[in-house]
Design goal:
By secondary structure, this protein is an alpha+beta fold. Helices cover 23% and strands 19% of the residues. Strand 3 and strand 4 form a beta hairpin.
């Protein structure tokens, strides 16, 4: 919106000054926490994350006063869901082991004491 009032150059940090002081620094704290959450999630998952700062400006009556509301929203990648493998039999029931695979007759073998180690001789 343009009007005939001359504009005064704003300092380059005007936005950051408002965000730093808004609600006692709450917006800055939420941005910092959100950034850490995003970095951790991206590092763990290898997938992208986003963080959005939404600032709402409302008139507070006449005289140039404003109400400012800031909201920080993060969208983190969903963690990988754990999967498992199951096998179906002919009746469509699920089993942990393949019902069509023959079982091997495996058994535990007793260990017997071995003879004392002998010195190895070098042959030239």
């Amino acid at each position: 919106m343009k009007d005939s009032v001359p504009t005064v150059p704003m300092p380059s940090n005007a936005f950051m000054t408002v965000i730093q002081h808004h609600a006692g620094g709450e917006a800055c704290q939420k941005l910092t926490e959100g950034m850490q959450e995003c970095v951790e999630a991206v590092q763990k998952s290898g997938k992208p994350a986003t963080m959005v700062l939404k600032v709402k400006f409302l008139p507070a009556g006449r005289g140039g006063a404003f109400i400012i509301a800031a909201d920080v929203d993060t969208k983190l990648p969903a963690p990988e869901k754990q999967t498992s493998i199951w096998f179906a039999d002919d009746a469509f029931r699920l089993h942990r082991e393949d019902p069509h695979q023959h079982q091997l007759p495996l058994r535990t073998v007793e260990q017997t004491p071995t003879a004392a180690p002998q010195e190895v001789r070098k042959v030239s």
